[in-house]
Design a protein that fits this description.
Number of domains: 2
Number of strands: 19
CATH architecture of the largest domain: 3-Layer(aba) Sandwich
Order of helices and strands: EEEEHEHHEEEHEHEHEEEEEEEEE
Helix content: 10-25%
CATH superfamily of the largest domain: Zn peptidases
Number of helices: 6
Distance between the termini: 47 Å
Structural class: alpha+beta
CATH topology of the largest domain: Aminopeptidase
Largest sheet: 15 strands, mixed
Length: 340
């Protein structure tokens, strides 16, 4: 039997000592300008006695900024003497992509949230995925991976979780969704039918760890409203897990609307390349067969635009941002009410 494969990433911080420990994960990467250098992935570990462990990550995609800023703020503000357990924070998980402000890594073009469980001897992105999947997630009772729509999509600020077959994990997922207190939350079936495999949440599911995600806006920018939702959500999740005391809970303005994303029928894609004209807005309720967008070809203005239609009924959670689009680009996706 071959020995277990080990990550080549070296943490500068301990995970088993009380206190606040800040430093870097050293991902050694030899390049022309630095033969023996490493990529410094920032990490902070807060620990105080016994209790649950939560893994909090942002910058999984480098052009999504809400999580990066919310977690950086949390690193500076969290009082470890008020917690019971452990909080592991990585605000810039895909550090090369986050520094470049791009969805994928400029080093290997890796999309970290399609790279799990990774490879300890693989590319930079695969090594990050392996370390998270095999060194960090097994330490955790829950994970929160903060995302937004990045440069190409805009979401109604939302939280999300995978559907869980286990009743206890399903109940915890729903509690965390409601505690996060985003205006909208939705349940997914994972990557089934959408091509969204290889995710951090999938790696968590493999280890039986409950995972929470978010889609906190997008358009390649950061809004004060989305940041407030992220910061409130993080605090409330720590309270819900019993890591912070109940008096630290931040009240929400309204209850969360719980939706589900059923699969491929909730997504609309461009069937042609051109300039897309959206026919609905975020938050609209639509019907199957309703026109979603027209794809124009201004270079041949006499040609009739192609029309994309919704495949099912639902609530518009997400829309594409750039007007110029190519065949296969996602234009919209929907959610449907669950009554939860």
């Amino acid at each position: 039997m071959s020995p277990p494969r080990k990550s080549q990433i070296v943490p500068e911080v301990p995970f088993d000592k009380d206190g606040v420990h800040c430093g870097f994960l050293r991902l050694f990467h030899s390049v022309h300008r630095s033969a023996y250098g490493f990529i410094p992935i920032p990490i902070a570990v807060f620990r105080n006695g016994t209790g649950p462990t939560v893994l909090l990550t942002g910058g999984n995609h480098g052009d999504e900024y809400e999580g990066q800023i919310a977690l950086a703020n949390l690193v500076r503000s969290l009082d470890h003497t008020r917690i019971s357990g452990r909080v592991i924070i990585l605000p810039m998980l895909n550090f090369p992509a986050a520094m470049a402000g791009t969805r994928t890594s400029p080093i290997d073009e890796g999309n970290l949230n399609r790279s799990f469980p990774g490879d300890p001897d693989g590319t930079v992105t695969q090594q990050i995925a392996w370390f998270v999947a095999n060194e960090l997630i097994p330490l955790a009772d829950a994970t929160v991976d903060l995302h937004s729509g990045g440069s190409s999509l805009m979401y109604i600020p939302s939280a999300l979780a995978r559907r869980q077959a286990d009743p206890d994990r399903a109940a915890l997922s729903l509690r965390l969704l409601k505690a996060f207190a985003a205006p909208v939350a939705y349940l997914t079936a994972g990557g089934q039918g959408t091509g969204h495999g290889g995710t951090l949440s999938g790696a968590a599911a493999t280890h039986g760890v409950v995972s929470l995600g978010s889609e906190l806006g997008g358009s390649g920018t950061l809004t004060p409203a989305a940041l407030r939702i992220a910061e409130r959500g993080l605090r409330n999740v720590l309270v819900e897990l019993g890591i912070l005391p109940p008096e630290d809970r931040v009240p929400a303005e309204a209850s969360t609307r719980i939706l589900e994303v059923r699969g491929a029928q909730d997504f609309v894609y461009a069937a042609e390349s051109g300039v897309y004209e959206p026919l609905v807005e975020l938050g609209d309720t639509v019907k199957a067969g309703q026109p979603a967008a027209r794809i124009h070809t201004p270079e041949t203005p006499w040609r009739e635009p192609a029309t994309a239609q919704f495949l099912g009924d639902g609530f518009v959670l997400c829309k594409r941002v750039p007007g110029r689009t190519m065949r296969g680009d996602c234009l919209f996706h929907l959610g449907t009410d669950t009554g939860l």
